[in-house]
Design brief:
Blueprint (H helix, E strand, L loop, with lengths): L6 E3 L3 H6 L1 H13 L6 H10 L1 H12 L3 E3 L20 E2 L1 H6 L7 E7 L5 E4 H17 L7 E5 L4 H12 L3 E5 L5 H8 L6 E5 L1 E4 L2 E4 L1 H9 L6 E5 L15 E2 H7 L17 E6 L9 E5 H15 L7 E4 L6 H6 L8 E6 L9 H9 L3 E4 L1 H10 L3 H4 L7 E4 L6 H10 L5 E4 L1 E3 L4 E5 L6 E2 L5 E2 L5 E4 L5 E2 L4 E5 L9 E2 L6 H7 L7 E9 L5 E6 L4 E3 L2 E3 L1 H9 L4 E6 L2 E3 L3 E3 L1 E6 L7 H14 L8 E4 L13 H8 L4 H4 L12 H9 L4
Parallel strand pairs: 4-16, 6-7, 6-8, 8-11, 11-12, 15-16, 15-17, 17-18, 18-19, 35-36
Antiparallel strand pairs: 1-22, 2-3, 4-5, 9-10, 13-14, 14-27, 20-21, 21-23, 24-25, 24-26, 26-28, 28-29, 30-31, 32-35, 33-34
Helix pairs in contact: 3-4, 6-7, 6-10, 8-9
Length: 661
């Protein structure tokens, strides 16, 4: 049995020697006269001397710019920090600048097909042709281009071509419902849309022409639609009169072989627009800039994931999740992204490990939810696959337990770095994460990332250690949003992050940091479990239930009632058709009471057939709490942002029947 804080892994001397962090610290000593003996002292310098740290990174990474910045940081205020003033650059140029002619740029494969690769020459030629075609169609700097595309090379080419000309990219997966797509894209008034005729998932074809037609009709500002015949390459029908096929667009894009041109833009010129999950209303359109994303992605990939040039890196993601933007930015550091489009559990639950063997990935991104699926199915990857090239696992998407981390050592590979991290769409980067030159302790995120002034604040805005508080960032980061799209006066932006602690970014998670810098993200603070004045993170409840064979999944909320009362129901999905009875209820209550405290024991346990999740795999704790508090469903939740909209039905009916808690 492993406990929180137990030593799980230590790097050997060879791993420390070849680490990006080791090379960077030696470079700082040699070039800047800064000597750091450990990560903790390096981190302190990185958040105290923002100018020195970020200017060092700009030089160390060799960021390409037609005009270099006058300095790293002009205005330091939050929000509104001014990064790399005076610079002119382009994100896509920094990606393609690192091209290695004749070598592979990315690996890709679809469900049921063998892996294939795209060379740097092919990638650059595709971007050149599509960029030229976009210009010919009248797309210019600042125009919005959207893509309803799967995780494929075409999506990467479309994104890089769009951003290379200074237009602004936004994407989502073709599995999104039409309403969910329109909720996002209609806010952007796009000029051109890329889309597909359909996709395959779980061994089944999904025709999407009708949905794409409806989306196009719901975007009156569209001037052009480009259709990729993805489901059926032989079906050459266009979506409607005036739309183009992908191949025809490629063919029209300067076949004479003109040079690839990159629009030089200001550091904060919009690069892409990502969207929040939109569980409680219209998704927030989060705008990121060219410079901030370029430097943050390189920092995260090299210093906190330690993937080496030429290695292959995999995350299971779709184009609508920020992990896609991170994955396809891997070539900024010479790393080869592996793109997979399909179900992670088809034709069997071990599908992704077969992929890992076939593609030789060195770095594998997973989630605790995925690990639970593997454990339930009895999958032991090390017994079935050659994972000799696998060096690192990173866990993201939800809080990680010690047992989850240990499972990967016991069932995948014992001698590898298993670490977790936390970040978000808001910054398209990480706040805390891996540090390969340090030991890993079970259940802990190793440390705050470099350049991230991360802390836990109590209710009075004081930094606390070894206490649960609010996750905050006290100094600006380059990839904090430039703005929200169409947000006059930055009103919505300020309300989202700066309405509690003025001048300090409040992320909305319960957070704890210990004396050695280990970090714990304990669930959303706006889903507070406040019992007898003590705040409880929902992750503690879920960890307590994780070892129970009867419980497959769960969701817990706490309702504040009149007179200072509260009500905390626990909703459980049971395994194997079991029915909730007194014995199972008693087992749950005893587990939570003995593992944690009487405050963790729910007031009521309710069986459900499904737990509601967003399309990106997050539990809908806040929407469920709002529905149970009497907020109308249409104001509390956005079904178009849900993986299974029907999973919410039970909670709507439960709220109607249980008004008096």
């Amino acid at each position: 049995m492993i406990g929180e804080g137990d030593l799980l892994w230590k790097p050997d001397a060879a791993r420390i020697e070849r680490a990006h962090l080791t090379r960077f610290m030696r470079w700082l000593d040699r070039e800047r006269g800064h000597r750091f003996d450990d990560y903790a002292s390096l981190w302190r310098w990185s958040v105290e001397d923002l100018e020195g740290f970020w200017s060092a990174l700009w030089e160390y990474f060799g960021i390409r710019a037609s005009v270099p910045p006058a300095r790293a940081l002009g205005r330091r205020t939050m929000p509104g920090a001014e990064w790399f003033p005076g610079a002119r650059l382009n994100y896509a140029e920094n990606v393609l600048y690192r091209a290695r002619p004749g070598h592979e740029a990315l690996v890709h494969f679809r469900e049921g097909q063998a892996p294939a690769s795209l060379s740097w020459d092919e990638l650059a030629e595709g971007v050149r042709r599509v960029a030229a075609a976009l210009r010919r169609l009248g797309i210019t700097k600042g125009d919005r281009v959207v893509g309803c595309l799967p995780n494929s090379p075409d999506a990467v080419v479309a994104m890089l071509a769009t951003t290379s000309i200074g237009a602004i990219w936004s994407g989502c997966g073709p599995d999104f419902g039409a309403r969910g797509v329109l909720d996002r894209f209609a806010q952007l008034t796009p000029k051109l849309m890329f889309c597909v005729d359909g996709y395959r998932y779980g061994g089944r074809p999904f025709e999407r022409r009708a949905e794409m037609q409806g989306i196009a009709e719901g975007l009156p500002t569209l001037e052009h639609v480009v259709l990729v015949p993805y489901l059926d390459p032989d079906d050459r029908r266009t979506l409607h009169a005036g739309s183009l096929l992908w191949d025809d667009l490629i063919a029209s894009g300067d076949p004479g072989g003109g040079a690839l041109e990159f629009e030089q833009v200001a550091p904060d010129h919009p690069l892409w627009i990502l969207f929040s999950s939109g569980t409680t209303g219209l998704p927030k359109p989060i705008v990121h800039g060219h410079a901030g994303i370029t430097i943050e992605q390189m920092k995260n990939l090299q210093f906190h994931m330690d993937v080496q040039p030429g290695q292959r890196m995999f995350f299971y993601t779709t184009t609508g999740w920020m992990m896609w933007n991170f994955l396809v930015s891997a070539p900024l550091s010479g790393v080869i992204p592996v793109l997979y489009d399909g179900s992670p559990a088809w034709p069997g639950p071990d599908a992704l490990w077969r992929m890992a063997e076939e593609t030789g990935v060195s770095f594998f991104g997973a989630s605790p939810t995925y690990q639970q699926l593997l454990a339930r199915q009895g999958v032991v990857p090390r017994e079935r696959f050659d994972l000799s090239r696998l060096e690192s696992i990173t866990l993201a998407g939800s809080p990680v337990t010690p047992e989850c981390m240990l499972w990967f050592h016991e069932n995948v590979k014992s001698d590898m770095w298993v670490q977790s991290g936390s970040g978000g769409t808001d910054v398209c980067s990480g706040f805390c994460g891996g540090v390969v030159i340090q030991p890993v302790y079970a259940g802990e995120i190793q440390a705050p990332q470099l350049g991230v002034a991360l802390a836990a604040f109590d209710a009075d805005g004081r930094s606390v250690v070894d206490e649960v508080g609010e996750m905050v960032i006290t100094e600006p980061m380059p990839s904090m949003p430039v703005c929200f799209w169409n947000d006059p006066g930055d009103e919505r932006y300020r309300e989202s992050y700066f309405d509690v602690f003025p001048g300090v970014w409040r992320h909305g998670d319960f957070f704890r940091i210990n004396a050695r810098g280990g970090c714990f993200v304990l669930g959303r603070s706006d889903a507070t479990l406040n019992r007898h004045g003590v705040r409880i993170g929902t992750a503690e409840i879920y960890r307590g239930l994780a070892g129970l064979p009867e419980v497959e999944d769960a969701l817990v909320v706490n309702l504040d009632l009149p007179g200072g009362r509260f009500f905390m129901p626990l909703f459980v999905k049971l395994r194997d058709g079991r029915k909730l009875d007194e014995g199972i209820e008693q087992t749950i209550r005893e587990r939570l009471r003995t593992a944690y405290s009487p405050r963790h024991v729910p007031d009521r346990i309710v069986q459900v057939t499904a737990i509601p999740y967003t399309l990106t795999g997050k539990k809908l704790e806040v929407p469920v709490r709002r529905i149970l508090s009497g907020v109308p469903e249409e104001r509390a939740a956005n079904r178009a942002a849900m993986a299974d909209p029907a999973a919410l039905d039970f909670f709507v009916e439960y709220a109607r029947a249980q008004r008096d808690y």
